[in-house]
Amino acid sequence: MSTIDSGLSRRDFLKGIGVAAVSLGLPAWSAGAACNPSRAALMTGVRPWTSGVYLNSNPWRRSPVLKNAVTLSQHFKAHGYRAMGSGKIYHGRFPDAASWDEYWPSQTQNRPNDPEPKGRPLNGIPRTSHFDWGPVDADNTIIVFWADHGWHLGEKLHWRKFALWEEATHNPMMFVGPGLTKPGGRCRRPVNLIDIYPTLVDVCGLTPKAELEGVSLKPLLLNPQAKWDRPSLTTYGWGNHSVRSERWRYIRYSDGAEELYDHDADEMEWTNLALDPKYARVKKDLAKWLPKTDAPEIVRGKGKRSQVDKSAQKKKQKKK
């Protein structure tokens, strides 16, 4: 099992290993709208509201829930696989040596000091100096291409990520697997990065893990049009959540503020319908998926929690 931060487009990556024609693309959203919470959720299968890992500054192994969590690569190691990684799999400041048999450049450093090591790449794939595991056996390999979050380039007058809107939370996901995906496959069901862990456990026949909070996407890999009644949820900061269905995005913030967008008519999310009584039923149906409780935020690297987050948590606790 290898996990790589390749730093190139999915077209170049899949073309380089000769499997682009048999991939399945899915509309995916991240579990967290920032690097650290998104990556921690994907690799542990535990959502931010359960772990308390909401921001880039939360050391995820300090979470009582994740302290002894078996990560995706650890679970495969326990079943006889060799786990190798490279690049930014976890957020840069929180590498996890226990997750890997081998990591480049080292178990405690995600990225090399020299961004363009001499003599690389050896695999012949363009612009992949940090991805150097070589060609793969496409007949005996499952490949998952993903990004940890989206990115605003001025949409809604916002820059970067750190928001619960579409551009910040929507990210690519592509599966390639022998006997799983068909040429030119495309799915429109809303899924989440947190579903990757249980999916790989399922399709590889590993022992199921009850603590995983995502679901297996195997039914959609086999039939992209299969019935799917689950929306995709994203969290950013304590008490702030977004629910994304095929048509709607519903956001509820820790102070009770709401947003509702109809993607059939407003894909850029300019018109907030949350206060229109005509859509009360839509909000109610989507709100059913919101968590009932939110774990306290994990103390940050310097031992402090943001004043904003602390005050929001106290306010919500008083309401209860």
Task: Walk me through what this model shows.
The chain has helices at residues 10-17, 35-44, 48-51, 72-78, 166-169, 196-203, 218-222, 280-287, 307-319; strands spanning 2-4, 23-29, 84-86, 102-104, 143-146, 152-153, 159-160, 170-176, 185-186, 191-192, 232-235, 241-244, 248-252, 258-262. By secondary structure, the protein is of the alpha/beta class. The longest helix is centred in the last third of the chain and has 13 residues, at 307-319. The N and C termini lie far apart (45 Å). Residues 4-10, 13-21 and 303-315 have low confidence and may be disordered.
Layout of strands and helices, then pairs:
Blueprint: E1 2-4, H1 10-17, E2 23-29, H2 35-44, H3 48-51, H4 72-78, E3 84-86, E4 102-104, E5 143-146, E6 152-153, E7 159-160, H5 166-169, E8 170-176, E9 185-186, E10 191-192, H6 196-203, H7 218-222, E11 232-235, E12 241-244, E13 248-252, E14 258-262, H8 280-287, H9 307-319
Parallel strand pairs: 1-3, 2-9, 2-10, 3-4
Antiparallel strand pairs: 2-8, 5-8, 6-7, 11-12, 12-13, 13-14
Question: Brief description of this entry?
Answer:
The protein is α/β, with parallel strands linked by helices and 320 residues long. It has helices spanning 10-17, 35-44, 48-51, 72-78, 166-169, 196-203, 218-222, 280-287, 307-319; strands spanning 2-4, 23-29, 84-86, 102-104, 143-146, 152-153, 159-160, 170-176, 185-186, 191-192, 232-235, 241-244, 248-252, 258-262.
